[in-house]
Amino acid sequence: MSLDKLTISPSTTSPAEARAKHSLAWLLPAGLLLGFILVMAFLFGERLIPAIEVKTSPVITLRLGEELDHRKNSEAVEITKGDMVFQASGWVEPAPYITYVPTLINGIVDEVYVLSGDTIKKDQLLATLVDDDAQLNLQESNQKVVSLEARIEAHCTANDILAAQMLAIEQTIEAQKYQLADASDNYERLKNIPIGSISKQQLTQARLNQQQELAKLAEAEAEIPMIRAQLKQIEYQRLSMAAGLEELHTERDRNQLAYDRTKITAPMDGIVLRRHAAPGKKRMLDMDESTSAVIVEMYDPQLLQARIDVPLTEAAGLIQGQFVELVSDILPDVIFTGLVTSITGEADLQRNTIQCKVSIESPDDRLRPEMLLRAKFFDSGLISTSQSDSVTTSGATRLALYIPESALLSDSSVWVVSTDGKAELRDVSLSTEKRDNHLRVISGLKSGEQVIIPPHQDLKDGKKVKISPLKK
């Protein structure tokens, strides 16, 4: 066979088969297009469905303040829980904080009398430090005080001596006064005798005797200021030594305090959380380590709280005073209750959470710090026992919820925009209280939710809605 025969060889495909192939070629792109349409419909179908345009009004939250305080004081009310808002995990910790029991002086631990987990009573001996130096310092201070007290007592006996000298001088002065009077009288008598009756020598002798007695009296009187000066000197010295004695008393009290502080006792009833001391271990006050002086950490088992990590996605439903139920794995059948007492001022960026503290009412003795808990947070409120109306509010923050009166579809239902943007018919409980055409909500709604205001004719449960802003 030649090449020419091969090149002009007729085709074996019939015209009917060629037409069939051309007629089926469009199925592939059509199938791809149909698949694309189905995928788009599955992913974005809800967005393509036309939504009903509605007007909404938010659930208004008000703080009651003094009005509720007056009502709480005048009526019997109790805190109750509403609907569960969210759940979160946390752990037990002492409330409001751990109590650290430190040594107040530097020293070496001699004995430790407690272990972690021990139940202790107030003033119970926890540990002792080596007290040899403290005993010697206290003994030396006592000896100094006794010695100075004896010196003061001996010094003050000089007052008795000077007092006796003062009495003797006063008596001498009195005697000198009599002798001076006698000498003066004798001189005056002789001076009045006519001249020639006595000799001039006798008159001169009488005058000299008078002057001599006068000098003796002046000399005796001059000793009194000197004795008084000596008495003042003794008093000033006594005051100086008394001040020194006070300093010694202070030193003795300080050494007594240092000795007493070698015995570390419990400041309260409680349970030992951690023990940091052991015999032979030094305890120092001025070290950088935060527990360098701590003997034990303790807590009151009746004062416990929960530290809960609340996801930021649920943080909008977290308020102070919120009702909480707590469950621990160690006591799975026991439900503890409490209230949110505080919310931390800073969120945890890495864990995407914010912490809150929850009080634990009547905690079980088997609960221990760092035990895991599961917390359920509820819409909490106050219910009056004297009236039929309820006060829908947080027990601590005292909040009340209000909705427009026009939003009511019936006496107990409203249309609400759900989180996925659909209309939801919600049953609610209302109070008779009314403010500015708004009714107070007891249960069925949450703060910040959107209620749909008329018209309601086209709404159906589960129907997609679009919020239209209200015209101002």
Write a concise synopsis of the structure shown.
36% of the residues lie in helices and 32% in strands. With 472 residues, it is of the alpha+beta class. It has four domains: 53-75 and 387-472, conserved putative lor/sdh protein from methanococcus maripaludis s2 fold, CATH 2.40.420; 81-96 and 303-385, Elongation Factor Tu (Ef-tu), domain 3 (Beta Barrel), CATH 2.40.30; 99-130 and 262-299, OB fold (Dihydrolipoamide Acetyltransferase, E2P) (Beta Barrel); 133-260, Helix Hairpins.
Structure write-up:
The protein has 472 residues and is α+β, with helices and mostly antiparallel strands. The protein has 6 helices and 24 strands. The chain has a 6-stranded antiparallel β-barrel. A hairpin with a 2-residue loop joins strand 13 and strand 14. Helix 5 packs antiparallel against helix 6.
* Category by helix and strand content: alpha+beta
Major sheet description: 6 strands, antiparallel, barrel
Q: Name the overall outline.
A: elongated
Report low-confidence residues grouped into runs of 5 or more: 1-9, 65-72, 382-397
- What portion of residues belong to β-strands? 25-35%
CATH architecture descriptor name of the largest domain = Orthogonal Bundle
CATH topology of the largest domain: Helix Hairpins
